[in-house]
Amino acid sequence: MNLKVKEDRLESRVKGVTMKTTPSIWMAVVGLKCEGLKIGKGNIEALVDYNKITFYKSCMRDQCGIIRGFNVGGSAMNLRIIAFIIVWIMTPRGHVHTVLHEKDIVLMYCIVNRLRVNEAFVLEEQMQKSKQLVDYKIPYVVLVSNFIEYFCVPLEGEIVELVKQNHEVLATTLHKIGLTKINNE
To answer: 117 - beta bridge partners?
Structure first.
């Protein structure tokens, strides 16, 4: 997949089919409106009351503790779940899912404060980074499949890759973020 940026939109040509992301395409393919804050690292002007340190401390179970790094481990359960969704699904990366990047913290702030974020912008930015930087991954592989289906890209002769164990979120990962199975007796 060869991604290009044209007028703040992604464009890719796959097997002779040109796919462009436009607001109407985002709505048709995944139901996302291209509305809300276009936020990211270094792009937080719209967040008037945002302070990274203050917000991060408010997420911690021990709010008086010393910050040694932006790690999700000491945060409250609901914020660990939000962080999990951000770093594994919205803006996935190759490793170290427990350390929060600045963009992760900004997205958490918006979610906690019920600020509308332009998810299409976040996904497009992540897709651009995945092309340029090896540590960034394409978000939500089903999203790419939906685009391929929407644009009727011919799939004859393509190799199908089944989900492997290293693609799955394991119980140990869920346990590390504090989720445990409760047996209903």
So the answer is: 37
Q: 167-173 — which CB contacts under 8 Å span 24+ positions?
A: 169/88, 173/97
pTM value? 0.70
- Taking the C-alpha atoms of residue 8 and residue 86, their distance in angstroms, rounded to an integer, is 22
Amino acid at 9: R
Distance CA 174, CA 41 (A): 27
Averaged pLDDT score across all residues of the chain: 77
Closest-CA residue to 53 (of 102, 117, 107): 102
d(CA 127, CA 118): 15
Most confident of 7-11, 125-129, 135-139, 162-166: 125-129
Place of tokens 């945002």: 50
